[in-house]
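stage 2 :: seqdesign
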């Protein structure tokens, strides 16, 4: 199996439900490097957050952040897909009126919130290492990558439904049980992976990806070796070519990588 790039989502995929990385990941990453395989994190999280979490391997990791709106490798931004801020006013006004929703405006320099609730700031801080509280999101002076909605009532059945009519202008993506992301129509993890493949001269047949939720759908389609986590959303399980034997709480990504890429006898994998 000629794999040159391994891409994994974080929450619900590489991370367990406590948001932890299994210690076995780090030696596995080193073995991938020794085999000439590039490792990539593709997340809805902020670039500064994932760079901090993977600081020890940052020099050898491809980062895809903010659900595909920013791709960074060895300190260089390979791809940026930013929103036209002049068109955000109507979107912000509508989103503010959705029950149970708080907003995070995700810029290239930082993320921004109007809400000062300490518990909400703490929740958002898990995903946005750089986070500022401002008076008005409309007045933020930054290159905007996406608008994120934290939906206490559940993103798939609440805020996603309320923003459906923006679908001809923006991509509205459920990125977690309580998170919804609004980006440019062509912004997604799949396009980001393809941009990285083009830049690095790696084909889809040389790419292995792992995902669990709806914001991973396009990424699943960008690789010949696509894996839905055992715990994945039904749509992801249906669209991926394979399903991992273990879920995110039992180190499913590392288990699959070790069996397929690092064991001498590894060659094939059947859908499970």
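stage 2 :: out
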């Amino acid at each position: 199996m000629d794999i040159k790039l391994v891409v994994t989502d974080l929450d619900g995929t590489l991370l367990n439900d406590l948001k932890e990385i299994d210690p076995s990941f780090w030696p596995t990453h080193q073995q991938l490097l020794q085999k000439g395989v590039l490792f990539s994190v593709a997340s809805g999280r902020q670039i500064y957050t994932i760079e901090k979490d993977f600081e020890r391997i940052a020099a050898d990791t491809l980062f895809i952040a903010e659900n595909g709106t920013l791709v960074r490798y060895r300190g260089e931004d390979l791809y940026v897909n930013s929103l036209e801020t002049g068109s955000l006013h109507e979107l912000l006004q509508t989103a503010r009126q959705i029950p149970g929703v708080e907003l995070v405006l995700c810029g290239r320099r930082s993320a921004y919130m109007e809400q000062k609730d300490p518990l909400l700031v703490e929740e958002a801080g898990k995903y946005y290492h750089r986070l500022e509280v401002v008076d008005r999101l409309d007045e933020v002076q930054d290159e905007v990558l996406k608008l994120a909605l934290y939906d206490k009532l559940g993103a798939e059945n609440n805020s996603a439904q309320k923003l459906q009519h923006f679908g001809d202008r923006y991509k509205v993506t459920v990125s977690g049980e309580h998170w919804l992301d609004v980006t440019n129509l062509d912004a997604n993890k799949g396009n980001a992976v393809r941009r990285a493949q083009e830049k690095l001269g790696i084909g889809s047949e040389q790419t292995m990806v792992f995902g669990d939720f709806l914001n991973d759908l396009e990424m699943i389609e960008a690789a010949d070796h696509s894996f839905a986590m055992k715990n994945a959303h039904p749509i992801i399980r249906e669209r991926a070519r394979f399903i991992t034997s273990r879920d995110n709480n039992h180190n499913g990504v590392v288990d699959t990588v070790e069996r397929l890429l690092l064991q001498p006898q590894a060659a094939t994998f059947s859908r499970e």
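stage 3 :: structure notes
- The domain at 85-184 is CATH 3.30.1240.10 (Hypothetical Protein, Haloacid Dehalogenase-like Hydrolase; Chain: A; domain 2).
- Residues 173 and 181 are 5 Å apart (CA to CA).
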